Amino acid sequence: MSFSNFISSRYYRSKSKWNIVNIISRSASFVLTIAVCSFFVVLSVFSGLKSFGDNYSKAFDPEIKISSSGSKHFIISDSLFEKIKRVPKIKFVSKVLEEKVLVQNEENNGYAYLLGVDESYNSVLEIDSVINVGKWINPSLKNLEAVVSYDLADKLNLGLFNYGGGLTVLVPSKNSKNNLFKKPFSSTMYMVSGVFSSSEASDQKTVFTSISSARKLLGLESETISSVVVKTTAKTNTLFVLDKLKKIVGPNLSVKTRQELNETYYKMLNAEGLILNLVLGLILIVAMFNTVGAVIILIIEKRKNIQTLYKIGAKKSQIKSVFFKYGLYLSYSGGFIGLAIGCVIVYVQQKFELIYLSGTSIPYPVVFDFSNFLMVIGWVLVVGLGGSFLSSLALKKIKP
After folding, report:
1. CA distances from 155 to 89, 112, 151, 166 (A)
2. Are 284 and 39 in contact (CB under 8 A)?
3. Is residue 218 a contact partner of residue 171, using CB atoms and an 8 Å limit?
4. Which residues, 6 or more positions from 184, have their beta carbon under 8 angstroms from its beta carbon?
């Protein structure tokens, strides 16, 4: 063990003659423990909330979406659809037909977005994960089923399997202006088979049904769709698939990833993550000044010992190294203990779900993300080095 390591470790382990030095040193280490623990827990909660939101996003937003650049609907041939399905790394593909419609049940009415989907839709998107009551529709069957949100079911007073009445969907009839006796609206009644939950206002207005019944209601041709949604295989480079699809579908169709479809949302998340790291880092820096104060007070208390070390041949750099390493002992002991406690708290919440979101039965989401672990370690190392260096500068006032 070197000279500086021996002296600094002894100062760290032994009690000082001045009781105030002991109190400040231990309190500095304790404050760092709390700050680092809070830092890691808050980052884990943020990752948990982000993951919680992504789960809902995966239920409504596909990995890749192909749609028309200039029109609401377009016709896709069977040959083009087969080419899309044969692109490497694509696992599932589904056709979607979307239209804004009127919805009604007895005297209750409103508007919604009708999504006609095929048999592969719940393989592309994890819609089953947000259905809390009932079941997902079976587009291959001829019976007219629909899945609606809690918000829409409550507004229209809908029940499952026609309990309380069915869901009537209305759209303006084509060429109805040319005939005074023709009904202004075409309508179809659906049996509600399932109810899903979502916090997004746009998703709460969505009604899912089979694409064949949606085409019939809208009076569209058999190959008419609004979009093609795609799911890739696990651990796939989405950009590779995106490039292949753009070459296949041509310039008239738009190909976008989930991040591009929700560009504002993901930019907001990245900005919030950056601000959160900076704020928590600033708190850690403020907490580190306790360590700076503790080292400076120790230097003042050990003034006579320092002069003795100078007289027996110790160099100024060695003395500086002693108090620099003492600062590191204080910083890193508190920091890594706090990180260990934070890991335990996150693990316990993730495993046993002890804390719930206010007013719900949903456990508070936390995620043990290794990147958060490395982020906190990085902050502790940098701030610890900086604080120890600043405190060791106080030696300039002590003459040999």
Report:
1. 42, 12, 6, 13
2. yes
3. yes
4. 172, 173, 176
Predicted local distance difference test score (pLDDT) of residue 17: 67
Angle 45-48-52 (CA atoms, 0-180°, nearest 5)? 140
Residue 30 pLDDT: 93
Rounded Cα–Cα distance for residues 108 and 156 (Å): 5
Measure the N-to-C terminal CA separation of the chain; round to a whole number of Å.
24
Q: Fill in the DSSP letter of residue 211.
A: H
| Sign for the pseudo-dihedral over CA of 144, 148, 153, 159 | positive
CB-based contact 12:29 (threshold 8 Å): no
**Alpha-carbon gap, residue 372 to 45, rounded angstroms:** 11
Quickly count: other Cβ atoms within 10 Å of residue 362's Cβ. Answer: 11
Predicted confidence (pLDDT) at residue 46 exceeds the cutoff of 70: yes
Closest alpha carbon to 345 in 78, 114, 41, 31: 41
* Cα dihedral 333, 338, 344, 346 sign: negative
The residues, any chain, with a CB within 8 Å of residue 392's CB and separated by 6 or more, are: 295, 320, 321, 323, 324, 327
299, 394 Cβ separation under 8 angstroms? yes
For residue 74, the number of C-alpha atoms closer than 13 Å in the C-beta half-sphere is: 17
Residues 254 and 249: their CA atoms lie apart, in Å, by 8
Positive/negative CA dihedral, 314, 315, 320, 325: negative
pLDDT digits (tens, 9 = 90+) for 146-160: 999 999 999 999 989
What pLDDT digit, counting tens, does each position of 297-349 carry?
888 888 888 888 888 888 888 888 999 999 999 999 999 999 999 999 999 99
pLDDT digits (tens, 9 = 90+) for 27-44: 999 999 999 999 999 999
Closest to 195 (Cα-Cα) out of 106, 141, 127, 144? 127
Q: Is the pTM of this model over 0.90?
A: no
